[in-house]
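Justification of resources, computational component.

The compute hours requested in this renewal are based largely on the per-chain cost of generating structure records like the one below. Each record pairs the submitted sequence with a full structure-token output. That output is archived, and it is also reused by downstream analysis tasks.
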Amino acid sequence: KMTQQMRDLQLAQARKPPGPSSPNAAKRLYRNLSGKFRVNYTSFDEGSLAGRGEKEKLRKSYLFQSNAALFEAVELQDLDRVQELLKQYSPEELDLNTPNSEGLLPLDIAIMTNNAPIARALLQAGAKESPHFVSLESRSLHLSTLVREAEQRVNELTAQVVNEAPNADCSEKEKQLKAWEWRYRLYKRMKAGFEHARVPDAPTNVHLSVASSSSVQVTFWEPLSVNSAVVTKYKVEWSCSPTFSPPLGEAVIDKLKNLHFTIGGLVSVSSWGAPWVSGLWGESPQLGKATGRTEALDHLLGQVKTVHQHCICHEPCKNQPQSRKHSVSKSLKHLFHPGSKFLKTLKRGLYLTAIFYKDDNILVTHEDQIPVVEIDDTYSCLLMQDFLWFTKVSCMWEEILWLRQCVTVSQSSCSCILQTRFKMLLAISQMQGLLGIQDLGQVFFEPVKDKQGNILIVTLKEVKTNQTFESVRWVPICKLQTSRKSVSSPEEPTALDMLLISVQDKLAYHQRSSHALSPGLYLGYLKLCSAVDQIRVLVPERLPNILCHVKIRSNPNISREEWEWLQKMVSVDEPVPAEPEAETSQNHLFQELQVAIKELMTLVNIPLQEAKDFRLYSQEVLDFGGQVSFLLLLPPSDDVCTAPGQNNPYTPRSGFLTLPLQIFELGEER
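The structure output for this chain reads:
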């Protein structure tokens, strides 16, 4: 039917004067033509519009064009245009969920062309998948049919163009040929995207809470993986059996703004369950808690401030000799000048850049540049100790002025280290002043370096409110990446180009590092590796603020009986301790630990037979707050920390990274 409709259109269009022959014109031509055959659409000829006002005619015609424009923008993968149309028109005005003549919806095209940003924008606006395909087989068959028909039409038009003499009809057929060739490529891309699609990752932070005497509420978050497949709906199932056999019910959630569901119609059970003996810890010293640590550190910092304020060496610099004023370099003086601005280009030196982002947008200067200020133009090699000191300063963004005063006092010693750190504080103050905000966010765990000697220290902060900034504006990240013209070669990119290329990865790291674990008891794996100037710790990319881990159970508490059994187990000389008696809490923990150790060994790619040489840390249970506690699994003492040049026989699979230990500690504290 679609082929016959296109043939009829060809005859009708042949009577019209020839139009432009550019590829874009061919795409617009086909879009406008194919749009007239959308399902549930009534042709707006003069007869059907009889009796209606001229305004109504124009409005409906304009809305039809908007609907066609949305399909065209999705097919051309124009995210800006899609977002503009979704803001300008309501879903009803756009016919957002009305299939086109091919039975496809905008969301279908976005998903099958693997365009996650456009798919998410459509989902937020209420887009749905086409209801015409009840199974994967029917969708695959339909795509194959579209590809075959488009290929056949291309072959027919090619033969006609080759065989006919040049005339008006031939010119029109060349335009149609270009349109069909482009559509043929689109269908092939959609078919390939559908065939290579994979299921999304599992939802995270799933919680169950009592909503009433006869209902419970399930809440959850999206999958952690930023590279996961696009989620268009969620299925919630419930059952009285842990194996969900048989299930008692299920529901589909396709409104993705509210990820929760209430299970109703439940019946309260009034009988007594089986007894369970439980031993509580109380004030046992074996539970390593962080209670009061933050308050103690704040108190200690207050004492340090008090000492500095009353220190005789903290007198104003007015008593210094006059020559001291002239020793300040021009590179420092210009930081205090009211005309200080962000840098446009980098010279050889050390710089600070701040990345503020909100959804898919990022803050840039008026020159479409990520905000950058200079730290030191004579510093070509960033020492790890200076960088780690900077990361500690990031915990005190509001105290920069006080820190500057403290470091200024010590400058008379002419220490290169103190000079560099003082310049770091000046750069922080300059960035805060230019942006009009004190909190610059979290420091990325490694600087960006290029071969020209430029070094960028990167801070990241997600903006969740409508916050006002100075001297900057919001732009879409994808637009910034495509519009910025690189001034470096692909072989030797500058630090700014490297930052722009990897900005999505850095934002993903920052988002993942703020996620928290669901309540429960976990088994963590501690693995370190040392270098000349630092020690690094192995962490998962999905949660870089937590050690490699697997969940043992949902209950985070360890009973006294369980802890005493653990103490005995790690102290015995036998490689495999005796299994505790059945139907006890110790036996349950023993079985849970066995499963968790096997899962953890597989996760970090260590042969299970090597687990006999591993040991449990038995000094304390680590309590991270939020009903999350950890037992630590340690490699043999000689393998806990891999020395420089020492080969690690068991390399973890993909999905892991190593962080400097100080960076990891700061992330865990956050």
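Residues 1-51, 276-289, 312-339 have pLDDT under 50 and may be disordered. The longest helix spans residues 136-163.
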